[in-house]
Design goal:
Its main location: membrane. InterPro entries: QcrA_N, Rieske_2Fe-2S, Rieske_2Fe-2S_sf, Rieske_Fe-S_prot. Helix content is about 30%, strand content about 15%. It is an alpha+beta fold. It has two domains: about 140 residues, no CATH class; about 130 residues, Rieske [2Fe-2S] iron-sulphur domain (Rieske Iron-sulfur Protein), CATH 2.102.10. A hairpin with a 6-residue loop joins strand 10 and strand 11. The longest helix is centred in the first third of the chain and has 31 residues.
Length: about 350
Protein backbone atom coordinates (compact mmCIF):
# COMPACT_ATOMS: atom_id res chain seq x y z
CA UNK A 1 0.00 0.00 0.00
CA UNK A 2 1.59 3.28 -1.08
CA UNK A 3 1.36 6.63 0.62
CA UNK A 4 -0.97 7.76 -2.14
CA UNK A 5 -3.54 5.19 -0.98
CA UNK A 6 -3.63 6.53 2.65
CA UNK A 7 -6.29 9.15 3.27
CA UNK A 8 -4.73 12.54 3.63
CA UNK A 9 -6.23 13.21 7.06
CA UNK A 10 -4.44 10.12 8.49
CA UNK A 11 -0.98 11.28 7.45
CA UNK A 12 1.22 13.09 10.04
CA UNK A 13 1.49 16.81 9.70
CA UNK A 14 4.62 17.73 7.74
CA UNK A 15 6.67 20.76 6.88
CA UNK A 16 8.84 20.86 3.78
CA UNK A 17 12.15 22.59 4.37
CA UNK A 18 14.95 23.44 2.10
CA UNK A 19 16.65 20.78 0.05
CA UNK A 20 13.52 18.57 0.23
CA UNK A 21 13.85 17.50 3.91
CA UNK A 22 10.67 16.59 5.85
CA UNK A 23 10.12 17.60 9.56
CA UNK A 24 7.42 16.12 11.85
CA UNK A 25 5.71 18.77 13.97
CA UNK A 26 4.50 16.50 16.86
CA UNK A 27 6.13 13.53 18.61
CA UNK A 28 3.71 10.55 18.12
CA UNK A 29 5.15 8.85 21.23
CA UNK A 30 4.94 11.80 23.61
CA UNK A 31 3.85 11.02 27.19
CA UNK A 32 0.23 12.18 27.47
CA UNK A 33 0.55 12.45 31.28
CA UNK A 34 -2.16 11.82 33.84
CA UNK A 35 -5.64 13.21 33.40
CA UNK A 36 -6.61 16.04 35.67
CA UNK A 37 -7.60 14.79 39.13
CA UNK A 38 -11.32 14.79 39.82
CA UNK A 39 -12.40 15.18 43.43
CA UNK A 40 -14.91 12.72 44.88
CA UNK A 41 -18.03 14.01 46.54
CA UNK A 42 -16.64 12.86 49.91
CA UNK A 43 -13.61 15.14 49.38
CA UNK A 44 -15.73 18.26 49.05
CA UNK A 45 -18.89 17.43 51.04
CA UNK A 46 -18.42 16.61 54.72
CA UNK A 47 -21.95 15.20 54.94
CA UNK A 48 -21.17 12.68 52.21
CA UNK A 49 -18.01 11.72 54.07
CA UNK A 50 -20.03 11.16 57.22
CA UNK A 51 -22.46 8.97 55.29
CA UNK A 52 -19.60 6.85 54.00
CA UNK A 53 -18.20 6.60 57.50
CA UNK A 54 -21.54 5.35 58.80
CA UNK A 55 -21.78 2.79 55.98
CA UNK A 56 -18.32 1.42 56.81
CA UNK A 57 -19.13 1.33 60.54
CA UNK A 58 -22.42 -0.45 59.77
CA UNK A 59 -20.59 -3.15 57.80
CA UNK A 60 -18.08 -3.70 60.60
CA UNK A 61 -20.91 -3.84 63.17
CA UNK A 62 -22.81 -6.32 60.99
CA UNK A 63 -19.66 -8.45 60.93
CA UNK A 64 -19.60 -8.48 64.73
CA UNK A 65 -23.27 -9.52 64.88
CA UNK A 66 -22.64 -12.30 62.35
CA UNK A 67 -19.76 -13.59 64.48
CA UNK A 68 -22.06 -13.66 67.51
CA UNK A 69 -24.61 -15.54 65.37
CA UNK A 70 -21.91 -18.06 64.39
CA UNK A 71 -21.11 -18.79 68.03
CA UNK A 72 -24.79 -18.94 69.02
CA UNK A 73 -25.55 -21.35 66.15
CA UNK A 74 -22.66 -23.61 67.11
CA UNK A 75 -23.79 -23.77 70.73
CA UNK A 76 -27.58 -24.05 70.30
CA UNK A 77 -28.30 -25.94 67.06
CA UNK A 78 -28.54 -29.72 67.15
CA UNK A 79 -26.02 -31.41 64.87
CA UNK A 80 -28.75 -33.77 63.60
CA UNK A 81 -31.30 -31.05 62.75
CA UNK A 82 -31.98 -30.48 59.05
CA UNK A 83 -33.85 -27.73 57.21
CA UNK A 84 -35.18 -27.35 53.67
CA UNK A 85 -33.44 -24.59 51.70
CA UNK A 86 -34.53 -24.00 48.11
CA UNK A 87 -32.92 -25.01 45.76
CA UNK A 88 -30.43 -26.96 47.89
CA UNK A 89 -33.02 -29.28 49.44
CA UNK A 90 -32.66 -30.73 52.91
CA UNK A 91 -29.33 -29.77 54.46
CA UNK A 92 -27.81 -29.62 57.91
CA UNK A 93 -29.17 -26.62 59.81
CA UNK A 94 -25.92 -26.32 61.76
CA UNK A 95 -23.70 -26.32 58.67
CA UNK A 96 -25.96 -23.83 56.87
CA UNK A 97 -26.01 -21.47 59.86
CA UNK A 98 -22.25 -21.69 60.42
CA UNK A 99 -21.44 -21.12 56.74
CA UNK A 100 -23.86 -18.22 56.38
CA UNK A 101 -22.85 -16.35 59.52
CA UNK A 102 -19.10 -16.81 59.00
CA UNK A 103 -19.42 -15.79 55.34
CA UNK A 104 -21.33 -12.63 56.29
CA UNK A 105 -18.77 -11.79 58.99
CA UNK A 106 -15.80 -12.06 56.60
CA UNK A 107 -17.61 -10.39 53.68
CA UNK A 108 -18.62 -7.37 55.76
CA UNK A 109 -15.05 -6.81 56.92
CA UNK A 110 -13.82 -6.93 53.31
CA UNK A 111 -16.66 -4.78 51.96
CA UNK A 112 -16.18 -2.23 54.73
CA UNK A 113 -12.45 -1.99 54.05
CA UNK A 114 -13.03 -1.56 50.29
CA UNK A 115 -15.70 1.12 50.78
CA UNK A 116 -13.44 2.91 53.27
CA UNK A 117 -10.54 2.93 50.78
CA UNK A 118 -12.66 4.04 47.80
CA UNK A 119 -14.57 6.85 49.50
CA UNK A 120 -12.52 8.20 52.40
CA UNK A 121 -8.84 7.41 51.87
CA UNK A 122 -6.79 9.57 49.52
CA UNK A 123 -7.16 8.71 45.81
CA UNK A 124 -4.50 11.04 44.42
CA UNK A 125 -2.39 9.31 41.74
CA UNK A 126 1.34 9.47 42.38
CA UNK A 127 3.87 8.63 39.64
CA UNK A 128 7.29 7.42 40.70
CA UNK A 129 10.27 6.43 38.63
CA UNK A 130 11.72 2.95 39.01
CA UNK A 131 14.65 2.66 41.35
CA UNK A 132 17.31 0.14 42.22
CA UNK A 133 16.39 -2.88 44.31
CA UNK A 134 18.50 -1.69 47.20
CA UNK A 135 16.97 1.51 48.44
CA UNK A 136 19.09 4.51 49.25
CA UNK A 137 18.81 6.07 52.71
CA UNK A 138 16.91 8.95 51.21
CA UNK A 139 14.42 6.52 49.65
CA UNK A 140 13.97 4.66 52.94
CA UNK A 141 13.29 7.95 54.68
CA UNK A 142 10.80 8.83 51.95
CA UNK A 143 9.02 5.46 52.35
CA UNK A 144 8.62 6.04 56.05
CA UNK A 145 7.37 9.54 55.35
CA UNK A 146 4.93 8.18 52.73
CA UNK A 147 3.67 5.63 55.26
CA UNK A 148 3.09 8.39 57.78
CA UNK A 149 1.35 10.49 55.11
CA UNK A 150 -0.79 7.51 54.12
CA UNK A 151 -1.79 6.87 57.71
CA UNK A 152 -2.72 10.52 58.04
CA UNK A 153 -4.62 10.60 54.74
CA UNK A 154 -6.52 7.41 55.64
CA UNK A 155 -8.04 9.43 58.50
CA UNK A 156 -7.62 6.38 60.72
CA UNK A 157 -7.00 8.55 63.75
CA UNK A 158 -9.72 11.01 62.89
CA UNK A 159 -12.52 8.57 62.05
CA UNK A 160 -12.91 7.07 65.50
CA UNK A 161 -16.22 5.36 64.70
CA UNK A 162 -14.64 3.41 61.83
CA UNK A 163 -11.52 2.63 63.85
CA UNK A 164 -13.40 1.30 66.86
CA UNK A 165 -15.85 -0.82 64.87
CA UNK A 166 -12.98 -2.22 62.75
CA UNK A 167 -11.12 -3.23 65.91
CA UNK A 168 -14.29 -4.87 67.21
CA UNK A 169 -14.90 -6.83 64.00
CA UNK A 170 -11.28 -8.00 63.73
CA UNK A 171 -11.23 -8.98 67.39
CA UNK A 172 -14.42 -11.03 67.23
CA UNK A 173 -13.91 -12.94 63.96
CA UNK A 174 -11.16 -15.18 65.48
CA UNK A 175 -13.68 -16.26 68.13
CA UNK A 176 -15.31 -18.32 65.37
CA UNK A 177 -12.23 -20.53 65.37
CA UNK A 178 -11.86 -20.57 69.13
CA UNK A 179 -15.29 -22.09 69.71
CA UNK A 180 -14.43 -24.88 67.26
CA UNK A 181 -11.90 -26.10 69.83
CA UNK A 182 -14.93 -27.54 71.59
CA UNK A 183 -14.83 -30.48 69.16
CA UNK A 184 -11.40 -31.52 70.42
CA UNK A 185 -13.10 -33.32 73.29
CA UNK A 186 -16.04 -33.32 75.68
CA UNK A 187 -16.70 -30.27 77.79
CA UNK A 188 -15.82 -30.60 81.48
CA UNK A 189 -18.99 -32.17 82.75
CA UNK A 190 -20.26 -35.60 83.91
CA UNK A 191 -21.31 -37.20 80.61
CA UNK A 192 -18.66 -39.90 80.89
CA UNK A 193 -19.31 -40.56 84.57
CA UNK A 194 -22.93 -41.63 84.26
CA UNK A 195 -25.03 -43.93 82.06
CA UNK A 196 -28.74 -44.42 81.37
CA UNK A 197 -29.06 -47.04 84.13
CA UNK A 198 -31.07 -46.02 87.17
CA UNK A 199 -33.12 -47.67 89.85
CA UNK A 200 -36.13 -49.57 88.52
CA UNK A 201 -35.03 -49.88 84.88
CA UNK A 202 -35.60 -53.38 83.53
CA UNK A 203 -32.82 -55.38 81.91
CA UNK A 204 -33.82 -56.04 78.29
CA UNK A 205 -32.28 -58.82 76.20
CA UNK A 206 -30.27 -57.33 73.31
CA UNK A 207 -31.32 -60.10 70.92
CA UNK A 208 -35.02 -60.58 71.71
CA UNK A 209 -35.75 -57.07 73.01
CA UNK A 210 -37.73 -58.66 75.85
CA UNK A 211 -37.33 -58.04 79.61
CA UNK A 212 -35.18 -60.67 81.31
CA UNK A 213 -36.23 -62.93 84.17
CA UNK A 214 -33.80 -64.89 86.36
CA UNK A 215 -34.98 -68.11 84.72
CA UNK A 216 -33.81 -66.79 81.32
CA UNK A 217 -30.16 -66.98 82.40
CA UNK A 218 -28.85 -70.51 83.06
CA UNK A 219 -25.64 -71.19 84.92
CA UNK A 220 -22.57 -70.74 82.72
CA UNK A 221 -24.33 -68.67 80.07
CA UNK A 222 -23.43 -65.18 78.83
CA UNK A 223 -26.30 -62.81 78.05
CA UNK A 224 -26.13 -59.23 76.76
CA UNK A 225 -28.64 -56.63 77.95
CA UNK A 226 -29.58 -52.98 77.56
CA UNK A 227 -31.73 -50.64 79.65
CA UNK A 228 -35.48 -50.55 79.13
CA UNK A 229 -36.55 -47.80 76.71
CA UNK A 230 -33.34 -47.71 74.65
CA UNK A 231 -34.28 -48.59 71.07
CA UNK A 232 -32.06 -49.09 68.06
CA UNK A 233 -33.98 -46.54 65.98
CA UNK A 234 -33.21 -43.76 68.48
CA UNK A 235 -30.85 -41.15 67.02
CA UNK A 236 -28.58 -41.35 70.09
CA UNK A 237 -28.67 -45.16 70.37
CA UNK A 238 -25.01 -45.67 69.44
CA UNK A 239 -23.88 -42.97 71.87
CA UNK A 240 -25.84 -44.48 74.77
CA UNK A 241 -25.19 -48.16 74.10
CA UNK A 242 -21.46 -47.42 74.14
CA UNK A 243 -21.88 -46.83 77.89
CA UNK A 244 -25.02 -48.83 78.74
CA UNK A 245 -24.09 -52.24 77.23
CA UNK A 246 -24.31 -54.93 79.90
CA UNK A 247 -23.28 -58.57 80.14
CA UNK A 248 -24.94 -61.02 82.52
CA UNK A 249 -23.39 -64.22 83.79
CA UNK A 250 -24.89 -66.73 86.21
CA UNK A 251 -22.37 -68.24 88.62
CA UNK A 252 -23.02 -70.60 91.51
CA UNK A 253 -23.13 -68.28 94.57
CA UNK A 254 -20.52 -70.40 96.37
CA UNK A 255 -18.10 -69.77 93.50
CA UNK A 256 -18.28 -65.97 93.80
CA UNK A 257 -15.13 -64.86 95.64
CA UNK A 258 -15.80 -61.13 96.06
CA UNK A 259 -18.19 -60.26 98.89
CA UNK A 260 -19.60 -57.10 97.34
CA UNK A 261 -20.08 -58.85 93.99
CA UNK A 262 -22.22 -61.43 95.74
CA UNK A 263 -24.26 -58.74 97.50
CA UNK A 264 -24.89 -56.88 94.22
CA UNK A 265 -25.93 -60.04 92.35
CA UNK A 266 -29.28 -61.86 92.31
CA UNK A 267 -29.27 -65.63 92.77
CA UNK A 268 -25.75 -65.77 91.35
CA UNK A 269 -26.57 -63.53 88.35
CA UNK A 270 -23.90 -60.82 88.11
CA UNK A 271 -24.10 -57.79 85.80
CA UNK A 272 -20.95 -56.12 84.52
CA UNK A 273 -20.25 -53.46 81.91
CA UNK A 274 -19.55 -54.95 78.50
CA UNK A 275 -17.11 -52.14 77.67
CA UNK A 276 -13.44 -53.04 78.13
CA UNK A 277 -11.52 -50.69 80.38
CA UNK A 278 -8.55 -50.62 78.00
CA UNK A 279 -9.76 -48.81 74.86
CA UNK A 280 -13.51 -49.44 75.01
CA UNK A 281 -13.92 -52.58 72.87
CA UNK A 282 -17.03 -54.72 73.51
CA UNK A 283 -16.25 -57.88 75.48
CA UNK A 284 -17.84 -60.93 73.90
CA UNK A 285 -15.89 -64.05 74.94
CA UNK A 286 -16.59 -66.04 78.13
CA UNK A 287 -15.01 -69.18 79.58
CA UNK A 288 -17.52 -71.20 81.61
CA UNK A 289 -15.03 -73.21 83.66
CA UNK A 290 -12.83 -70.30 84.77
CA UNK A 291 -15.48 -67.53 84.71
CA UNK A 292 -13.05 -65.40 82.69
CA UNK A 293 -14.28 -62.77 80.22
CA UNK A 294 -11.90 -62.00 77.34
CA UNK A 295 -11.74 -58.84 75.24
CA UNK A 296 -11.06 -59.86 71.61
CA UNK A 297 -9.19 -56.64 70.75
CA UNK A 298 -6.11 -56.85 72.98
CA UNK A 299 -6.80 -59.98 75.07
CA UNK A 300 -7.50 -58.21 78.36
CA UNK A 301 -8.93 -60.87 80.68
CA UNK A 302 -11.28 -60.28 83.63
CA UNK A 303 -12.28 -62.69 86.39
CA UNK A 304 -16.06 -62.33 86.72
CA UNK A 305 -16.10 -64.44 89.87
CA UNK A 306 -13.72 -62.07 91.66
CA UNK A 307 -15.02 -58.56 91.09
CA UNK A 308 -14.10 -58.63 87.37
CA UNK A 309 -10.51 -57.77 88.26
CA UNK A 310 -7.89 -57.75 85.51
CA UNK A 311 -5.79 -60.94 85.45
CA UNK A 312 -4.14 -60.45 82.05
CA UNK A 313 -3.67 -57.83 79.36
CA UNK A 314 -3.34 -54.04 79.12
CA UNK A 315 -6.65 -53.06 80.80
CA UNK A 316 -6.01 -50.70 83.69
CA UNK A 317 -8.86 -51.49 86.08
CA UNK A 318 -11.71 -53.90 86.74
CA UNK A 319 -15.06 -53.84 84.95
CA UNK A 320 -17.73 -51.75 86.74
CA UNK A 321 -20.54 -53.79 88.28
CA UNK A 322 -24.27 -52.95 88.15
CA UNK A 323 -26.32 -53.78 91.22
CA UNK A 324 -29.43 -55.73 90.20
CA UNK A 325 -32.56 -57.26 91.72
CA UNK A 326 -36.11 -58.11 90.64
CA UNK A 327 -39.14 -55.85 90.31
CA UNK A 328 -42.77 -56.52 91.21
CA UNK A 329 -43.29 -58.38 87.93
CA UNK A 330 -40.38 -60.73 88.52
CA UNK A 331 -38.12 -59.11 85.92
CA UNK A 332 -34.46 -58.32 86.50
CA UNK A 333 -34.04 -54.61 87.16
CA UNK A 334 -31.23 -52.22 88.02
CA UNK A 335 -30.95 -50.88 91.56
CA UNK A 336 -28.96 -47.82 90.46
CA UNK A 337 -26.17 -46.80 88.09
CA UNK A 338 -22.71 -48.34 87.81
CA UNK A 339 -20.53 -47.80 90.86
CA UNK A 340 -17.86 -46.05 88.72
CA UNK A 341 -17.46 -44.69 85.15
CA UNK A 342 -17.50 -47.36 82.46
CA UNK A 343 -14.87 -47.90 79.78
CA UNK A 344 -11.27 -46.69 79.68
CA UNK A 345 -9.86 -43.91 81.82
CA UNK A 346 -10.32 -40.30 80.64
CA UNK A 347 -8.56 -37.04 81.47
CA UNK A 348 -11.11 -35.61 83.89
CA UNK A 349 -11.85 -38.83 85.75
CA UNK A 350 -9.47 -37.95 88.56
Amino acid sequence: MSSQDIPEENLPAQDTEAHGSVAVKEDPFADPGLPEHEHRIQDIDDRAAKRSERVVAFLFTLSMLATIGFIASYVTLDVDKSVYIFPLGHISALNFALGTTLGVALFCIGAGAVHWARTLMSDVEVAQERHAIEAEPEVKAKVLQDFADGARESQFGRRKLIRNTLFGALAMVPLSGVVLLRDLGPLPEKKLRTTSWKKGLKLVNMNTNEPLRPSDIPVGSLTFAKPEGLEEHDHDFQTNIAKDALMLVRIQPENIKDKRELEWSHEGIVAYSKICTHVGCPISLYEQQTHHALCPCHQSTFDLSDGARVIFGPAGHALPQLRIGIDDEGHLAALGDFDEPVGPAFWERG
